[in-house]
Design brief:
Layout: H1 13-69, E1 75-76, H2 79-85, E2 92-95, E3 99-105, E4 111-117, H3 125-134, E5 145-151, E6 154-160, H4 168-171, H5 183-203, E7 207-209, E8 218-220, E9 226-228, E10 235-237, H6 258-261, H7 270-286, H8 293-296, H9 303-312, H10 325-341, H11 352-360
Parallel strand pairs: 1-5
Antiparallel strand pairs: 2-3, 3-4, 4-6, 5-6, 7-10, 8-9
Length: about 400
């Protein structure tokens, strides 16, 4: 190690030993550092590789979708544009399971609703679902997708702005914050939603199942015309397909059709959307949530049974503003149609085309349906395919 000391140096041997040991130690540290870097790269590639491959796959799927849309494809924005149009996410309109919705403004002054999806949704499936399904639609009762942003894990969707918010703000008597709608308007909203579903089921080359129809996902424009929104759970399938995969499907408590979480009740189809729709119009007619906790403590805890009991006894269900015969006819019609829509067996539910016929016809022509869930659904639910839906029970005799 003489080369480490200046020429002619008479350094103590201990110093020579110290310098030699230091040089050797530095070499060891360098080797260890190189090995750590190599190990870390391999480890990160092994751990994060699948994540980035999923991101790349979703991005490729999205590009294919946009290419098929051609000139009708929604506009793509940079994430910096999203921040600018929302004034750095200043005005929050609402929040759901997949992200937060903010009020925004485009450069031309047009107001928009910007849904920023949670970054924790790693594979972006709900984002691609929404873009792939809604970009195929063009209907007065389907919300319009104006644009999107997709930069890695940062995703946002830009929709037309609905000034009157969502339907849930208007229909629940107990929690209403805004003056309730009149019966004529409620009826026309029910018709409009059914027409939107009819379009999704029959008006597109590829059928679209929404699978999350509920008041929170029905937006109202300046004239209170309804528009179906939030296609994060939507499924696309060809008309020749008799069933679709539901692995990993989620849903909202109170609106999930039985067959979605257990094949013992049948196969998932357009009738699954009919179930959601039926439960929703029962809420619209009664002004009560189907999961109202106060009723859950009473003997009338199961919402459809409560309505069915009142219907059979021709009791006043305390429907809002049923002060004349016309309002009573609308209320009774919506209840009868809703009860048909939530039959346990999908084959006993009407198609959405038939639902529209029933709503637009006379209530006197409608027969009273069988009581919903006439027997306990205690079948081997544990044999159902694994999904992220939990069995929505509070005791052994009730579900949903």
């Amino acid at each position: 190690m003489r080369c480490l000391l200046p020429p002619g140096s008479n350094a103590n041997p201990r110093i020579r030993i110290f310098i030699a040991a230091s040089a050797f130690g530095a070499c060891i540290l360098l080797v260890i550092s190189i090995l750590c870097v190599c190990f870390r790269r391999n480890y990160m590639a092994r751990i994060c590789g699948p994540f980035w491959r999923k991101i790349a796959k979703k991005s490729a799927n999205l590009e294919d979708i946009l290419e098929k849309c051609g000139p009708m494809a929604p506009k793509r924005y940079r994430y910096s544009d999203i921040k600018k149009m929302t004034a750095s996410f200043k005005d929050k309109l609402g929040q759901g399971g997949y992200g937060i919705v903010y009020k925004g403004k485009l450069q031309d002054g047009c107001l928009v609703a910007v849904k920023v999806l949670n970054e924790s949704k790693a594979n972006g499936e709900e984002f691609v679902n929404e873009v792939s399904s809604i970009s195929r639609t063009s209907h007065v009762n389907i919300v319009t997708l104006l644009g999107f942003s997709f930069e890695g894990s940062k995703r946002a969707l830009i929709y037309e702005f609905m000034p009157n918010g969502s339907l849930d703000n208007y229909i629940y008597e107990r929690e209403k914050k805004i003056s309730p709608l009149g019966w004529e308007k409620i009826y026309h909203i029910a018709i409009g939603i059914a027409q939107g579903l009819q379009y999704l089921h029959n008006g597109c080359n590829t059928r679209i199942l929404h699978l999350d129809i509920k008041p929170q996902n029905i937006l109202l424009d300046q004239d209170f015309s309804p528009k179906i929104s939030d296609f994060g759970l939507a499924k696309l399938y060809l008309r020749k397909e008799s069933k679709i995969s539901m692995l990993g499907t989620r849903g909202t408590v109170g609106y999930i059709a039985p067959e979605v979480f257990s094949r013992n009740f049948g196969v998932v189809s357009c009738k699954s959307d009919v179930y959601c729709y039926g439960m929703m119009i029962l809420e619209m007619a009664s002004g009560r949530k189907n999961t109202d906790m106060e009723f859950d403590r009473s003997s009338e805890s199961y919402f459809p049974h409560w309505i069915y009991k009142c219907l059979l006894k021709d009791q006043d269900i305390k429907l809002r503003c049923t002060v004349d015969k016309a309002a009573e006819a609308i209320a009774r019609k919506m209840i009868l149609v809703g009860l048909w829509c939530i039959q346990t067996d999908p084959e006993n539910r009407p198609s959405i085309d038939r639902v529209l016929d029933m709503l637009q016809g006379s209530h006197e022509a409608l027969k009273i349906p069988p009581k919903p869930f006439p027997s306990s659904p205690n079948r081997k639910l544990e044999s159902a395919p694994t999904t992220s839906i939990s069995i929505l029970c509070q005791d052994s005799d009730r579900f949903l």
